[in-house]
Structures are given as C-alpha cells and as structure tokens.
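Data deposition worksheet. Section B asks for the primary sequence of the deposited chain exactly as it was used as input, without tags or linkers unless they were present during the calculation. Section C holds the resulting structure in token form. Section D is free text for depositor observations; keep each observation to a single sentence. Incomplete worksheets are returned to the depositor.
Section A, Depositor: J.P.
Section B:
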Amino acid sequence: MEDKYLEFEKPIVDLERKIDDLKSFEGVGLSDEIQQLEKKLKKLKKETFSNLSPMQRVHLARHPLRPYAQDYIDGIFTNFIELHGDRLFGDDRAIVAGWALFEGEPVMVIGQQKGRDTRDKLLRNFGMPHPEGYRKALRLMKMAQKFRKPIITILDTTGAYPGIEAEERGQAEAIARNLREMSTIDVPFIVVIIGEGGSGGALALGMGDRILMLENSVYSVCSPEACASILWKDNAKKELAASALKLTSGDLLNQGVIDEIIPEPRGGAHANPADAIERVRASLSKHLGELKKIPSEKLPDLKLERFSKIGTFLE
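Section C:
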C-alpha cells in the first residue's frame, strides 16, 4: 500500500525511514548516528509544523489518516447508541449520531463522518450530508433538549451535498431551519471542528455555545480551490485564496469565531490519534463543566450575542 503523506512531510518521512533502516542493523554500533538523526528529526518536525502556511493546514485538515468523527466517538464516549432517520425521508450515513455517556453523563453526540476506503466513502457520501442528514441531526438535538441533556457536534465536511436530488429535497431549507432552531436551544451545546468545516454544510451543526477547533483544522465559507476559481478564475491561486479566507484556527480565534484552539500532537492529529482524541476529551470536559454553571434560560441570549458579533468591525 502506498504511503500516505503530504508533500511538505516528505523530508520528515525520508529521515524517519533512514532511522528505521539503521535500527534494523542491531549490534552494528550505529547508536550514536541514530541518536544524531533522531535529534535532527525532532528539530525538522518542530521547524516544519511551526511555520505552516494556510494551504498546508488545509492539506493537514484533509489528511486521509486524520481521525474522523467515529474515531472521536469511540475514543471519548462510552455506551454509544446510534440513532437513525429523519422520520421524513430516510437515514443519511454522512451523519453519525446518538446517545452516549461522556464521563458518566448522558449526552447527544452528532458527527459528520467521512469514509476511509472506497466502499465507506460511498456509504458516507464522502462526508457530505443530504437534507435528511440535517433533519436527523435537528430531530436528535430536539430530543436532547427535551430530556435536558448536553449536545456535542463534531464537524468535518467539505460542505453539504450539492446534487440535484439534495436540492429537490430541500437542502437550503434544512440548513436554514437548523440555524434557526439551534439559536433557541437552551441546553449546553459544544461544537468541535476536527478537520474541514465547509460552508453551510458545517454551520448547519455549528451554532453552539462553545466552538472548539483542532489546531490544523479549517473553517470557511468555501474551499481555497473554489475561492480561487470564483475570484480569479484560476485554481493555481489557491494558496493566495487560503490566506485571504482567514480559515485557520489562529485566524478564527483572533476574529472571535471560535472559543479555543485545541493543540495537536507534533506532526498533526494523524501522527498520534490517541493523543489528539485525549486532548479533545479534556477540552470538552472543561467547557461542558463551565456551561453547566450557566442558567439554561441565559444560553440562547448568550449564543445570539456571540454570533451577532461575528463579522462586525469598527471604522
């Protein structure tokens, strides 16, 4: 199987392979050389991942080995019971959702799930939900509100599915309805962006009380490639578009769009999935504890206040 690594990761991968090759020669007296190469590797990783461009972070957010929503659900929650269907049309497998226990407390968890292999990608529609996926998510949010339980959504999609059949079944209406209804939810609601947060397809699950974002995730109105094609009619300008879109976690924290950046392991979440999952768990625990101290009747007003500030500026 072909190794999966990004172009800017190639020098790191080459050095790792060299170290592994030397380690295979046991008892040949290469320990000093291996030690020197390991120091060089550590320095190279630090330099590479401390100076990533916006487009490089986009590539990391799309990394095929990056943990997906199901990985976080399996690693953070217990007793997960998946629920299906929107009670109107069908079940959208791009949305995986249900009841689970988080640190012993029942919560509703809703995630956008991409596929690993070809079969799974087709089953999950490459992580692009249809309108029935958003209606399923809203049904379960309302269920959580009815039973006074917290909601946790996990965002990772290039966007809502743009096919004709999705539009015929009311894609735009489903997203708009979710936005309206999420604004009134009065139980603790946390959003975690773990990979790509693409346009309305992500925002339709993203109107929470707290928005957390993994360090190398992105959140934007459109992809750099789409932006470059629209503004400059030239896909080659995607690097410029990625910078202009301000889609990185650092940009979004500065603009007040998100509440916290969750640091990733050196090399990205795919380099150490277990560590990345634990970091998300710790952040969820902290923010859920804080939200539970806020009177429920105040949550909708605070939510509307924070979203109303997004995009405002002073002359």
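Section D:
The domain at 56-309 is CATH 3.90.226.10 (2-enoyl-CoA Hydratase; Chain A, domain 1).
The chain has a mean pLDDT of 92.
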